[in-house]
Amino acid sequence: MSNTKPNNQHVSERTPLIHGERSNTANGAPSRSDSYRHVRGSRALHFFTDSRYTPGTDHSNIVLRSLAYTWHVTKVTLLSNYVNFLLVMVPVGIVAGKSGWGATAVFTLNFFAIIPLAAVLSFATEEISLKLGDALGGLLNATFGNAVELIVSIVALRDDQIEVVQASMLGSILSNLLLVMGMCFFFGGLVHGGTNGNGREQVFSAAVAQTTCSLMALSSASLVLPAALYSVLDRNNNSGAKRESILTLSRGTAIILLALYILYLVFQLRTHSNLFDAESQTPPSDDETTQTPEAETEDAHEEPVMGPVAGLAVLVVTTILVAICADYLVGSIDEIVESTNISKAFIGLILIPIVGNAAEHVTAVVVAVRNKMDLAMGVAIGSSIQIALGVTPFLVIVGWIMGKDMTLRFEIFQTVCFAVSVLVVTYTVQDGKSNYLEGAMLIGLYIIIAVAFFATPGDAMEGARTLIFGS
Questions:
Q1: How confident is the model at residue 52 (pLDDT cuts 50, 70, 90)?
Q2: 358 φ, ψ (degrees, to nearest 5)
Q3: C-alpha atoms less than 13 angstroms from C-alpha of 220 in its C-beta half-sphere
Q4: Measured between alpha carbons, how far is residue 373 from residues 187, 251, 285 in Å?
Q5: Does residue 141 contact residue 314 with C-beta atoms inside 8 Å?
Q6: How far apart are CA 381 and CA 391, in angstroms?
Q7: Highest taxon of the source (predicted)?
Q8: Is 227 in contact with 455 (CB distance < 8 Å)?
Q9: The pLDDT of residue 470 is above 60
Q10: How many CA atoms lie within 13 A of 442 on its CB side?
Q11: Rounded to two decimals, what is the model's pTM?
């Protein structure tokens, strides 16, 4: 064959149009106009859909380079998660809240607006973490891992929605412990469990599971003790003394829990980080030793797609938008409860955790299906630890500063649900193995609890709080 091929065959997607080439359509080669359209189309495709490169980011003109990089950051943020198509709900939800639309419309629109914002918040945090190293990156993820729940809860706390705050904290813990972990066990077990009496179990670090379950048992005790104290003090008609006793116990316990959470972070990120290293998990089974090219590419994708300054800017903007949407969402809760007779406990326990954790839940299930159970367990139990030992006691301290009566005295039924869930999860994970039956059990318990709170009338749990803290 002749080596005199047309030059335009070597034109790549990022190569500028080569001038002076001749049309050779008679020999089947593309013409110059065809090459121009191909290059222009390729550059346009990169400009709108390529999350790794945007034309213009290396331009010599600083204005054009800045504009191109701004679009690059916007583009990679929009393409970071499949739920980001719901970002169109953000301006609509803000307009609905500002214009005073009906409570149902405001709640629904802002509910769906916060879901993609939570995904963007998680994406920006991970992008920054990749530049900070394991220790600082892990600390950043631990700090912002439940930022949406924290923002929504602070807004609700400001509006004296104590019951919503407590229910959302409990709901976040239960959704991670029961629903997310249950789905990880269930779908991972179905894919990797074997058939025809030759069943297998997925394996994860038993040491990590035992440590985290012990911490969850401690957090369960921190809720049981205030409830028990209130039950004892209930014999005394001095409501002021009961109030002060519960507040003192809750605030003192919150300080201790925060200290233990900091100690847990040191244990996880510094002194015993080897126990939490997902790379050292059990090797895959025989039928998974050959990775697909897609899996290898994904595993190798560790380079950030935007810089730390851009990630911080996305983090700040997203946090502001979450606060605005959360303000409108929380402001519509009272009217929703009155019009639908759905309890605030159900809204906080079931609906609000969906807002903050939807994308994270899907991620946990996906990695479980890929047989990376340590990663899945890190998302499920790790998030529960953050809420139980970090966010909840922090909100008690914030309420103390704001002059709000935020305590660790949950309703008896809520406390029992939490304690039973921790007990069931402990028995399930203590052997470091899982299967789809155990996953179905955890999902079933979560559904039972959800139905119980859905069946609770809207004003059923208001009386006890009025008795202890007044109207």
A1: low
A2: -60, -55
A3: 20
A4: 11, 36, 13
A5: no
A6: 14
A7: Eukaryota
A8: no
A9: no
A10: 29
A11: 0.76
